[in-house]
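anyone else get weird line breaks when pasting these?? whatever heres mine. first is seq + tokens for prot A
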Amino acid sequence: MRVSPILAIVFVYVAAWAQSSPQKPNSQVPPQTPPTQAAPSAQAPPNQPPLTQSVTPGASAPSDVEGSDPESVGSVEAAQLLPEPPPAAKGKLTLVGGRIEKVDYVRDEITVRPFGGRNLKIMLDERTQIYRDGAKVLPGALRGGEKIYVDTVLDGITIFAKNIRILTQRSNGESRGQIVSFDPGKAELVVNDALSPEPVTLHIVAATQILHEERPASLSDLRPRSLVSVKFRPGSEGVVASEISILAQPGTAITFVGRVTNVDLHTGLLVLEDPRDKKTYEVRFNPSAIRINGDLVEGAEVTVTADFDGTRYVTNAIMVNSGPASN
């Protein structure tokens, strides 16, 4: 069939117009979504490092992990790496007052010279609480020559310090020492306190109470070389004695009844605790001449009559009343 030239031109024009005009989208065909990345496989290829790596405690996080905090990924608190402190020692607390002879930070121990005794080594650690004039301080605050009071407890065969109190200021307190002199005109009593490098001057006022063997005494009983226990307080004129208890006077005999805390039959030393004042007393004796009635061991209850010669208690007989108390 022959097509006329005019009809052919029309067909070409219509085809060109159809191709150039925009097509309306079909409402029934859902719009296509952009292609998504394929989910990563459960296991990374052998030649590809994993996205997460295990981190040992204390090590920093890998630098190739984006969005990770090097200080937080796999980190462990330093306190968690330290060993747990040992449990607190259980036992009776004993107050030791004295002066620091030596501080050993390597062995964590201090050497204290207590009142009326020999040097004593006391251990301490992070459980020990240390105070200076009532304020809590660090262990580095301990210095040789300072006056301290220590709450000690026996941990096996080691003496452990639970609390240490450093005293640099005088306030209300109690002391024990020996009378050096007494001036009635000035009402001043000078006491050689073993915990003080210099004798202490105490002022006696009208309210000062003087006792001897728990009975009222007079100013005339304050004789040199007598052992006294003094309660004091600060005053406008200095340190004021509120109570003076005369423990022993030279040439007098004292009877002790208490429990033995320490005994050394070779050196002739007996230490006992008097239940009346809860204080310990050292009594000296001649090992070759002492008369002992009973089994003299630690914990036994004894009766001792000792003479005070102006410096120490001395006895020549010890009576054992009973053995150690059963727990």
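and prot B, same format (seq, then tokens)
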Amino acid sequence: MASAQSGWMTIENLSIRSGVTTRNIRAYQSRGLLPPPVARSGERAAFYTPEHLARLRLVSRLQERGFSLAGIADLLESLASGKNLEQVLGIESAIAESEEDESRIVTENELRALLPEVADPEASIERLVAVGLVDRHERAYRIRNPRVFELGLAAVQAGIPVEALLDEFVRLRADLYEVALRFVALFTQHVLDPFLAAGMPKEKLDSVVEHLKRLRQLAISATEALMRQAISDETEAAARANLAFPPIAK
């Protein structure tokens, strides 16, 4: 049985990882924007690959920039004769192949059951979607990071108001995007730009992708380690400032 972790994806797996509905995936295939899935020996269903995921993400980004589907089709066709599209998809598909998807699909009733008791559960769900913790997925919802979601619920149960926690999540997300941009700028200046200046040699592609993966892991590991230290230091400082310690006996 193929799995998203092995690189082979069903249309449902592809939909979850790309954020594109299964209906739109099939529509893109019919318009030539997405290659057909791949048949595998011994499997009834056809499967999609990281290349399909990379193409879907490219199509989605072009749509966000205002391209029509017809315009995207023309662009893909014109690029297909050269190596630019191949290189772009090669980089994206290699990165996509290494990503682990931990998201979880739940129905609206299941999502409501997970939430703490609030006066307006629909408004809470809308807020979760707005801040990026939850995505709409066809007639259901996708919890993007179940572990973060569960820890957030635990924080609410400890007494932190939902709205205050979501506000902090928005601020944290903005801060982390700034950090991510700085690391990406390092990669762009010192790795990607020289690769582009050299004419995007195909033999260098694997090396560029590996450098990006390692830099991404460095950013994640460093952020986690430094956050742990900062939380520890600030917690200790808060305890010393606010907790009354008994006098030391002489």
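btw re prot B: The longest helix spans residues 205-242. The chain has a mean pLDDT of 80.
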